[in-house]
Design brief:
It is a single chain. The protein is of the alpha+beta class. 39% of the residues lie in helices and 14% in strands. It has two helices and two strands, in the order αβαβ. Strands 1-2 form a two-stranded parallel sheet. Strand 1, helix 2 and strand 2 form a beta-alpha-beta unit. The longest helix is centred in the middle third of the chain and has 14 residues. The protein starts with 5 loop residues before the first helix and ends in a 13-residue tail after the last strand.
Length: 70
């Protein structure tokens, strides 16, 4: 961007990072195709969220809720 101000971006980014709170929900990504799971993991790593997501290789017919409600 022609008017991007790196110092302002860093300041705002640091302020936002200081306000991050724990996310109480579990995030799960599933697919029966191992290749797609691998791509999803790579994307999550690039986005900086890999530690927050659990990936599973399974068919949708095997998917069951882990909690009775939610």
């Amino acid at each position: 961007w022609t008017q991007h101000q790196q110092s302002l971006w860093e300041k705002l980014r640091n302020q936002a990072l200081q306000q991050v709170r724990p996310f109480p929900a579990k995030i799960v990504g599933m697919d029966e195709n191992n290749r797609l799971i691998s791509i999803a993991k790579d994307n999550a790593e690039q986005a900086g969220v890999l530690p927050l997501v659990e990936f599973k290789t399974m068919q949708v017919t095997q998917c069951r809720p882990e909690a009775p409600k939610g």
